[in-house]
């Protein structure tokens, strides 16, 4: 199995890599070693998921690995937690939010219990913000915005970036007239990561751009800034550009 995995890693084409992975999976299955099967399928999924060869069969590798780890390993085993994250990320990417939510919550739970900061935990929080905002459950979204804020070190000069954002609607009257423009807004990100007190600093193109920008920013979510271990309100600003594609 190991030589095949090495060949897959150095394969000249994705097609060749896929063939090596399939042979390695077959050998692992013949040896009746479930954890080895899970390990190989995990590697195969990771290598092929961002290639043109990402098929339902490759997607299934993530499900298979998760099922094996869940049966064979304790819930706090790192391999199982990572497999849980991978499957949650797959479900999130396919907008299967009901399936993704409990998986991502489980990832956060385990990393919290392990007292172990990991990028998967941070990303799980961010995915859950997106999921809860899409489901219009802003209270649940808030706890993950705050959690992200507590995980990131802040500098006074650091600009906050939105965790969840929607694009503004282009005013139809401006579309018909071919108008473009931009709006720069200063606002406060409160202790829960909501946008409050938006003020237009400057703009170009018309008042409807300003109104649409304010309306849009009210839907955005941020990670609040932390000081002394507690979330605090902080000023931020953003510029939204409006242009009609040629």
Secondary structure layout:
Blueprint: H1 2-9, H2 14-30, H3 34-48, H4 56-72, H5 78-93, H6 97-114, H7 119-134, H8 138-151, H9 172-177, E1 181-189, E2 195-204, H10 207-217, E3 225-227, E4 230-232, E5 234-242
Antiparallel strand pairs: 1-2, 1-5, 3-4
Helix pairs in contact: 1-2, 2-3, 3-4, 4-5, 5-6, 5-7, 6-7, 7-8
Key attributes of the depicted protein:
alpha+beta, 246 residues, 3-stranded antiparallel beta sheet, single chain, two-stranded antiparallel sheet
Summarize the structure in words:
- With 246 residues, the protein is of the alpha+beta class.
- It has helices at residues 2-9, 14-30, 34-48, 56-72, 78-93, 97-114, 119-134, 138-151, 172-177, 207-217, and strands at residues 181-189, 195-204, 225-227, 230-232, 234-242.
- The longest helix has 18 residues, at 97-114.
- It is globular, with a radius of gyration of 23 Å.
- Helix content is 56%, strand content 14%.
How do you describe this structure in short?
56% of the residues lie in helices and 14% in strands.
What's the total number of strands?
Answer: 5
Low-confidence segments, given as residue ranges, are none
* Number of distinct helices: 10
Average pLDDT, all residues: 93
Give me the oligomer status.
single chain
**Inertia-based shape:** globular
Along the chain, the helix and strand elements come as HHHHHHHHHEEHEEE
**Alpha carbon gap, first and last residue:** 53 Å
Main beta sheet = 3 strands, antiparallel
Secondary-structure-based class equals alpha+beta
Helix content: 55-70%
Widest sheet, order of strands: 2-1-5
